[in-house]
């Protein structure tokens, strides 16, 4: 997805590093970059380009929020499993202390100290040194274990509660971005459908034209075996439909295609193009080799895979399947080698 028609002069590569987007910053940045309304433009195809670009930024923000939600679900499950184990431990300790109390009662009556021992607030019991003196060493040890287990249980319950709140915020952010993407894409489709057939055909030709004079190594090998495997996977996806928010195998968005292709080579990539930008080391475009990730625009909101011969394989935008395009189809911001 992204603007392919209005091509700026080729910039130098961005060698700086950027802080990875968190959930809220990603949401704010994406929504800030996607205005609610836009002034009419004399060139409908330029408006289509703008809408695709804005939708892609919102798509990457959606991917970030959705990926974070998935990670949070895993963490919540882990914490909840730990809570269940700790609750079982607490129950076992309470039963053990109850058995001690029963044994003491049967041997001559319930000691007043055990009344405190089995109270709802054993912390108060430990603070009373004079009462502690009346406990057996075993009773005191069990009570301390119970206190420790209870505190850990409370901490994990609070942690789970915070994670659930984060998950809800992430769900809401993803839903907001989804709505933005759908609105932008529907508007772009409406503009394209209103164009005469000849203008639509000219738009498609321009989208694949690229800029002349950019370096394009011919016949070079992939930088590594895993890069070669990723290129082979990306080639196998040629013709697959663009599906926003998808990472294969039946459909892809731009970063989803990169993630899926490298997964076939045994390499785990982050979900978003912004994060993929920093998944390896940056190299000059003139030294690009098959398998390198080519990031576009200053915000790295689009990504393709260099395939050699001056071409990339990428998932362009809705209605355009995974395909080859010139590496210079849009302003290149950086090239990442994994």
Label this structure with key terms:
single chain; 338 residues; alpha+beta; 6-stranded antiparallel β-sheet; 8% strand; disordered N terminus
Describe this structure in words.
The chain is of the alpha+beta class and 338 residues long. 55% of the residues lie in helices and 8% in strands. It is built from ten helices and six strands. A hairpin with an 8-residue loop joins β4 and β5 (323-326). The radius of gyration is 30 Å and the shape is elongated. The protein starts with 22 loop residues before the first helix and ends with a strand.
Give a summary of the structure in a few sentences:
Helices cover 55% and strands 8% of the residues. It contains ten helices and six strands, in the order H-H-H-H-H-H-H-H-H-H-E-E-E-E-E-E.
SSE pattern, N- to C-terminal = HHHHHHHHHHEEEEEE
Radius of gyration: 30 Å
Tell me which oligomeric state these chains represent.
Answer: single chain
Mean pLDDT: 76
Helix and strand layout, with pairings?
Elements: H1 23-33, H2 44-106, H3 112-117, H4 122-127, H5 129-132, H6 137-194, H7 197-207, H8 225-236, H9 254-263, H10 273-276, E1 281-283, E2 293-296, E3 302-308, E4 311-314, E5 323-326, E6 332-337
Antiparallel strand pairs: 1-6, 2-3, 2-6, 3-4, 4-5
């Amino acid at each position: 997805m992204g603007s392919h028609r209005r091509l700026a002069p080729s910039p130098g590569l961005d060698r700086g590093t950027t802080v990875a987007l968190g959930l809220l910053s990603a949401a704010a940045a994406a929504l800030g970059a996607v205005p609610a309304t836009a002034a009419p433009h004399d060139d409908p195809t330029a408006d289509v380009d703008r809408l695709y670009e804005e939708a892609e930024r919102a798509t990457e923000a959606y991917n970030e929020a959705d990926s974070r939600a998935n990670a949070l679900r895993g963490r919540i499950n882990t914490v909840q499993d730990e809570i269940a184990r700790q609750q079982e431990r607490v129950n076992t300790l309470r039963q053990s202390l109850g058995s001690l109390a029963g044994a003491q009662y049967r041997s001559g009556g319930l000691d007043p100290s055990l009344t405190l021992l089995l109270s709802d607030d054993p912390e108060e019991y430990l603070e009373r040194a004079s009462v502690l003196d009346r406990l057996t060493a075993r009773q005191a040890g069990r009570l301390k274990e119970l206190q420790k287990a209870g505190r850990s249980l409370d901490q994990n319950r609070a942690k789970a509660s915070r994670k659930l709140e984060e998950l809800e915020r992430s769900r809401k952010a993803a839903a907001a971005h989804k709505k933005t993407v759908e609105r932008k894409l529907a508007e772009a489709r409406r503009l394209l459908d209103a164009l005469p057939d000849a203008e639509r055909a000219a738009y498609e030709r321009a989208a694949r034209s690229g800029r002349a004079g950019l370096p394009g190594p011919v016949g070079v090998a992939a930088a590594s075996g895993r890069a070669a495997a990723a290129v082979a996977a990306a080639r196998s996806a040629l013709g697959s439909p663009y599906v926003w928010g998808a990472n294969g195998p039946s459909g892809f968005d731009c970063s989803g295609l990169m993630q899926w292709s490298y997964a076939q080579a045994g390499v785990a990539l982050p979900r978003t193009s912004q994060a993929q930008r920093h998944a390896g080391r940056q190299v000059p475009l003139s030294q690009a080799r098959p398998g390198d990730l080519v990031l576009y625009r200053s915000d790295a909101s689009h990504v393709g895979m260099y395939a050699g011969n001056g071409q990339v394989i990428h998932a362009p935008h809705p209605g355009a399947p995974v395909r080859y395009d010139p590496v210079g189809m849009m302003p290149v911001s950086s090239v990442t080698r994994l």
